[in-house]
Design a protein that fits this description.
With about 180 residues, the chain is an alpha+beta fold. About 30% of the residues lie in helices and about 35% in strands.
């Protein structure tokens, strides 16, 4: 039993070193390089975002945004907490993520300063219908350009801009996304 606990401690220590190294080595735009705590908080922000949207928890999903946060998709735009909640709804159902789930890949975190950062990431939405089912598999692929803001000690999405194929015509959004140099296309 002692060897198992020792092995778990070693794995935990190595994971901690990797987190610290990854956060410290992350590229940054300003004089602030970010901390291991920033990296963990931002990683957990992405995890909470995916868990809440996949389980239909609009209130939990909106909690990942600043009060005036923006989610801009190619075919629609939601600004502020009320509209954000409306995107996902309020019929939270734990286990709903067994039907479909978001699979993100967080890109480098670029810190503008202690309270502002940007992230470019990729995402897939995968439907779980069972082997061989025609509606199963990858349903959506795309990227996010995120502007993050630390509010009350928590990292939140201030603006989430989605890039993905859409059959619907593009919709103008009355909010203007911040365009840091790292997101120039």
């Amino acid at each position: 039993m002692g060897e198992v606990a020792g092995g778990q401690a070693l794995i935990a220590g190595l994971a901690g070193m990797l987190l610290c190294t990854g956060a410290a080595a992350a590229p940054h735009q300003g004089s602030y390089a970010g901390t291991a705590d920033d990296f963990v908080q931002i990683s957990q922000l992405f995890a909470r975002y995916d868990f809440s949207i996949d389980n239909g928890d609009g209130i939990g999903w909106a909690d990942n945004f600043t009060p005036d946060g923006v989610f801009q998709d190619p075919s629609w735009c939601a600004i502020g907490r009320k509209q954000l909640i409306g995107v996902v709804g309020t019929s939270s159902q734990l286990g709903k993520d067994q039907e479909h789930h978001h699979v993100p890949a967080i890109g480098p975190i670029l810190y503008a300063d202690r309270n502002h950062a940007t992230v470019h990431s990729t995402v897939m939405v995968v439907s779980e219908k069972g082997a061989g089912h025609p509606d199963g598999g990858i349903g959506i692929t795309g990227t996010y350009d995120d502007s993050l803001m630390r509010v009350g000690g928590r990292w939140l999405f201030a603006y989430r801009l989605v890039h993905r194929p859409s059959a619907k015509p593009s919709v103008a959004c009355s909010a203007t996304p911040p365009r840091p140099p790292s997101f120039a296309r």
